[in-house]
Please model this.
Amino acid sequence: MTDSKYFTTTKKGEIFELKAELNSDKKEKKKEAVKKVIASMTVGKDVSALFPDVVNCMQTDNLELKKLVYLYLMNYAKSQPDMAIMAVNTFVKDCEDPNPLIRALAVRTMGCIRVDKITEYLCEPLRKCLKDEDPYVRKTAAVCVAKLHDINAQLVEDQGFLDTLKDLISDSNPMVVANAVAALSEIAESHPNSNLLDLNPQSINKLLTALNECTEWGQIFILDCLANYTPRDDRESQSICERVTPRLSHANSAVVLSAVKVLMKFMEMLPKDLDYYGTLLKKLAPPLVTLLSAEPELQYVALRNINLIVQKRPEILKHEMKVFFVKYNDPIYVKLEKLDIMIRLASQANIAQVLAELKEYATEVDVDFVRKAVRAIGRCAIKVEQSAERCVSTLLDLIQTKVNYVVQEAIVVIKDIFRKYPNKYESVIATLCENLDSLDEPEARAAMIWIVGEYAERIDNADELLESFLEGFHDESTQVQLQLLTAIVKLFLKKPTETQELVQQVLSLATQDSDNPDLRDRGYIYWRLLSTDPVAAKEVVLAEKPLISEETDLIEPTLLEELICHIGTLASVYHKPPSAFVEGSRGVMHKRLPARTGSGEGTESPDMGNTAGGSAPEAATSIIPSQGDLLGDLLNLDMAPQTTTGPTPPTSGMQMGGMDLLGGVLDSLLGGDIGGSPAMGVGFGAAPAVMPASLSAPVGGGLGDLFDLGGGVGMPMGAYIPPKTVWLQAMKAKGLEISGTFARRAGVIQMELVLTNKAMSIMTDFAIQFNRNSFGLAPAGPLQVLTPLGPNQTIEVSLPLSTVGPVMKMDPLNNLQVAVKNNIDVFYFSCQYPISMLFVEDGKMERQVFLATWKDIPSDNESQFQIQDCHLNSEAASNKLQGSNIFTIAKRTVEGQDMLYMSIKLSNGIWVLAELKVQAGNPNYTISLKCRAPEVSQCVFQCYEAVLKN
Amino acid sequence: MINSLFLINASGDIFLEKHWKSVVSRSVCDYFLEAKEKALEPEDVPPVIHTPHHYLISIYRDKLFFLSVIQTEVPPLFVIEFLHRVAEMIQDYFGECSETVVKDNMVMVYELLEEMLDNGFPLATESNVLKEMIRPPTILRSVVNTLTGTSNVGDTLPTGQLSTIPWRRAGVKYTNNEAYFDVVEEIDAILDQSGTTVFAEIQGVVEACVKLSGMPDLTLSFMNPRLLDDVSFHPCVRYKRWESERVLSFIPPDGNFTLMTYHVNAQNLVAIPVYVKQSISFFESGSGGRLDVTVGPKQTMGKTVEGVVVTVHLPKTILSINLTATQGSYTYDNGTKLLVWDIGKLNPQKLPNLRGSLSLQAGAPKPEENPSLNIDLKIQQLAISGLKVNRLDMFGEKYKPFKGVKYITKAGKFQVRT
Model:
């Protein structure tokens, strides 16, 4: 007889019939009736009308009947709270039953009846059960505390159950310990800041003992709890690791992964030269590999976690590449994850194998998988330089298959390869162009257009190709439109004569016929740029692009560290910190998350990427004014803090957005020099205020202003400030990126720093220190970062420097070693400052003194240099140099050759004398330097070159 | 912890729901069903799905989806392991895991689920503990129950629940005391067109069937334990003894259980027992092609390879096939394009061959993908890694048990690329 008979009476009087049976005198009939009720309940039928009749069956000696009634109660008590009270007496009585099974069952069921009135009656029985002599009852009661806490947290605290629960961690029975830990962990989750699991060496020891003896599930709870502990020192850390390691051989994969988490975390504390450290690394690989032979669902979770582990410690699995090879009957979600890890593990040693596999995958049936495999080939090319050539030829082979989606993916990744290895593989462009017609996906079209634009000079019919795209301009996606606009402008700049019509066409399409603010803005900027200053336009549009690297699809290190602490949890599956999807406590709204995948998104070229920005909505909502005004507004808005107030740090998110909008364009537009604010020299009045005509000329709107400033950069207007360079990469400094430059303003040397927080957490407590250096540079004050730096925020700081610090000769002479500290760690970097920062204002020598000194310095100390490709006349050069405190004392003209005599005084009192020969029409200058300390000559020459060429 | 469980059949009907905390409306399954719609095969449904208020973690097993609903941060592996336990429990109790069986034993399944979790925390998942609480159905018992009115729910506390050996119950008695061990090895391998091994590993498992009275303490030792460096054990195995002496020392659970799984992936240790010569080619013109497959024995250690089956997923554009097999028979399903060639025993003197022509649908282009061959095979009395059991000793009990070891090698995911 099977239970399906319970479903056969589906006619109208079913409930009525059941009611009669429930009230029958015969025990057996009663039980059958309750079974029928439960059966209906399990398939989702509403049988709540039978509540009183079922509850009447509760008082029975038959355990099965009792259990069945309890099952029913748990489901329906909430809908019938008043009736549920009827059951309380039986519960309280059962909690006194001599049979521990019944006591446990009663306390367990009571906790599941989520009715407030019942919870009041629950407290006393629960208190007794927590101290019951039978561990089975105690362990059940421990879980009951968690249930009660879920219903009424206040009650649990008031009744002191939390303390009792904490006491149970020291229980003699490991199962009770495990359940207490589980219950406390669950309660702690809704009180993130509470100190419920107060871990200390004693309690850790108890947990470790219980770990060996409790059930597999208990082991998971205990291991997860251990992972929250921070050992005092490396010895404690090692001893915990030693006791956790046997768990790696457990048959339950969740135990294994939780153990891996504990080990990965505590390993951080072990010194790397310790023998045990190496042993531990070796022990981690086999269990991870074993997880991959489990059921596919387990594999998936394991793979997501392995993805984190190989990023953190690639050495663990570097020899295990083959286990990640895809089997054709793996589920798709396993295949995609395996591919990701294959790329992470790819290295010069195994790249041949990996490529052969990837090529194999590219001929599989599953389209998503094939696409990702093709992309993976591109990522290999970018990651392993030696393989680039082979990757490209593999991609070309794939393009020859003419399978539409394969071709499209291949083109997208080839674009990235071009960006990584410029001027190396352009010979394949012809093959790519053949496939132009088959491209129907926006990403592939955009990539192809980018290639055509970027290499327009090598493609004879580039104009025809781009023109063919232009026909359906308005039907294209934004991505393609933006790319087409940029590509045609590039083409125009490269081949101006034949493509004038084309560029006008695309500009008018973008600015007049489009509703898309990003497209319009970019159109306007190009238009203005082209009509105002084609040379500048060339510099902007055809600027050299930064190389892309494999790092773009790695997880940011601080996030990675957080995720390593969450191995085995949902966070590790989503590769997002728990804070990103669990707000405060449990069960609250979870934000919708796409799973982070390492597809090639990160490798977009910047001019494809920066579409949306903070100011865009503003432009979109206002009625479009005439083009000049709109652009003026936009640019004024964004540039205001830069051009007028100088080093005011743009800290608000809004301004950052604005900068992003103009991102690549403006940065390169201003050649980086504006980072140091050309207006600065004016503001401080230190430099001779010889304003170029173009700057003071009346200008028609913000845009003109801006461009003229850009043009004016080359004029003598202030001390030369080198463009900011990145000194400290975020990758190496747990998310803190530092770039900066040096400037000399009003006689004060300033170190201008831009601090960017690329980590997920807030940074505070910044401080800076210099190592001893050649000229005794030292911070003249503390680093002024007053507000904490939030994630993705940037702050600019000027640090005044003095030259009275301790001196030590460095190599190169102008090298400076810096330590920056924040709340996370101390980071070190070194940078080189232009020696011109040390040129003092009173460096103009008297003519007589100059002559005497020149003669006095032995000719051995004289060094000669060539400055090539400098197109300034002697006057302009002299003006420019003076801005950097290089003073011209006399000028002589001999046979059409201007001889300039100059003097420089360094902050430490060293004089440098110079003779500069400028011949009209010859872009090559000759410079002779004389100094008593000849080692500075090289640096001084570099300054000359930098100043004159910028 | 685990909030609710839904059992869903392959066509998307929910036929059982169980809640361990407050009731979650079954409409939450819509997110899952949506994902299921999107997936090409039921196997391809992602195991972790995110909905606005819950996480859905599911497994697909025996053509059923076991879907659990999670509200808090819970280790997903914990949930997945548990779901597999549920499936194994159903299999264990009712002989198979299917929709019919669950529907036939609805109440018992429900009672079992209630015993397995409490408030989402695992309570009793060991089969022998469960069986003491709720006795599995047997024909005899149901007859007795109907006659005497007793139930199949135990009313004493299971002994294993609290001891430090929760996997064994006390008071086990057998008239015939016996202990059997099966060493089963599966070869997972990928061979490329030329027959070179791209990847190969052995998944081994030692399955035990122990029916011994009392509290026996067993020690199992191997001739060559060095082979095993990557092992996972049943909780009963004393890890310290293994570490120090490389022997398996344990008090066994009663009945069937997996004693240990292991993994050999050192390439040189994995012998490939068969070779496959194959060519599947299509004419450039696109009208058809040829198929020619020969299978022969390779490293078989002198044993016979049997149960050989070759499975090929032919391209979708195939219209019909016309093949001849020199041994065994083949079946071809034109709907799924699945070609299955059942060869049987391999005879080294006369190698089985399957050849013939494939015709494509009119106008279909030459297929792009290369179909892979899947090989199934069996070798009796051989563990292909060379693992051998040395001896089994019993302590703690006086009787002499009957002991036995069996070896078998099978193909796991054994794939030949073309």
Observations:
- Residues 177 and 400 of chain B are 8 Å apart (CA to CA).
- Chain B touches chain A through 104 residues (CB under 8 Å).
- DSSP finds seven helices and 23 strands in chain B.
- The first strand of chain B starts at residue 2 and ends at 9.
